[in-house]
Specification:
Layout lengths: L1 E6 L4 H9 L6 E7 L10 E2 L11 E4 L6 H11 L3 E3 L6 H10 L4 E4 L5 H18 L3 E8 L9 H13 L5 E4 L11 E8 L5 E8 L4 E8 L3 H14 L5 E3 L1 H6 L1
Parallel strand pairs: 1-2, 1-4, 2-3, 4-5, 5-6, 6-12, 7-9, 8-9
Antiparallel strand pairs: 7-10, 10-11
Subunit structure: Homotetramer.
Catalytic activity: (S)-2,3,4,5-tetrahydrodipicolinate + NADP(+) + H2O = (2S,4S)-4-hydroxy-2,3,4,5-tetrahydrodipicolinate + NADPH + H(+); (S)-2,3,4,5-tetrahydrodipicolinate + NAD(+) + H2O = (2S,4S)-4-hydroxy-2,3,4,5-tetrahydrodipicolinate + NADH + H(+)
EC number: 1.17.1.8
Length: 249
């Protein structure tokens, strides 16, 4: 049985994970961390430093400003850290990379298996299509999402950019009078209502378009991916891991 500490346990995703974990016979949440210490099926601490319950992995679905405390706690307890939070700064991403030399860290901009399959498809087709197709990315999320564009949109955009041999750059939305510049990949963020998450990559050519789209119907898809990451990271050696490792595994 892999024992999990869940940071952000009383947030929207935390609550979904707490329900979804019941479908995993080999996983158990033994403690939670949240400013809201409302009672759940396990003890909840308002500060991770006060958590005195042994666990095998530390799972984070919260906000980027929790990062330092999470890494300090994971190092102190010598347990893998699974980061599902998005919106980290470039400096924080560098900290994660450096910290992974000492500790096992899993990080993904999106915990959906489907999104990561699409990401792998983009690695194979982006350079092939680039010369004859313009590339645009559209992402849609609920009206409470803080970061824009989404971490997933940036994941897909960077995969495309890194797969194309020519130099490309991003343009975030458009305003004013200007034509499409071929080597600029458009990224557009839409916020509204209760949209769980939609990501669409459009390759627009002369006389045809190729569209690759992923729609999250419920948050459970992210919870399942996060819990699979907990399974995968049990007793892992130091290093930086991602969803590709799970898919290949």
């Amino acid at each position: 049985m892999t024992k999990i500490i869940l940071n952000g346990c009383n947030g929207k995703m935390g609550k979904v994970i707490s329900e979804t974990v019941k479908k995993f016979e080999n996983l158990s949440i033994v403690a939670g961390i949240d400013k809201n210490t409302s009672s759940v099926d396990y003890p909840v601490f308002s500060n991770i430093k006060d958590c005195n319950i042994d666990a095998d992995v530390l799972l984070d679905f919260s906000r980027p400003d929790s990062l330092k405390n999470l890494m300090d706690y994971a190092k102190l307890k010598n347990i893998p850290l699974i980061i599902c939070t998005t919106g980290h700064s470039d400096e924080q991403l560098k900290e994660i990379e450096n910290f992974s030399k000492e500790l096992a860290i899993f990080r993904s901009a999106n915990m959906s298996i489907g999104i990561n399959v699409i990401n792998n498809i983009l690695k194979n087709i982006s350079n092939l299509l680039y010369n004859n197709y313009d590339i645009e990315i559209i992402e849609k999320h609920h009206n409470q999402k803080v970061d824009a564009p989404s971490g997933t949109a940036l994941l897909l955009a960077n995969t495309i950019k890194n797969s194309i041999k020519e130099e490309t750059s991003f343009i975030y939305g458009r305003e004013g009078s200007s034509k499409k510049v071929h080597n600029k990949i458009g990224i557009h963020a839409i916020r509204g209502g209760s949209i769980v998450g939609e990501h669409e990559v459009i390759f627009a050519g002369q006389g045809e378009t190729i569209e690759i789209k992923h729609t999250a119907i419920s948050r459970e898809v992210f919870a399942v991916g996060a819990l699979k990451a907990c399974e995968f990271m049990y007793n892992k050696a130091p290093g930086l891991y991602c969803m590709d490792d799970i898919i290949r595994g």
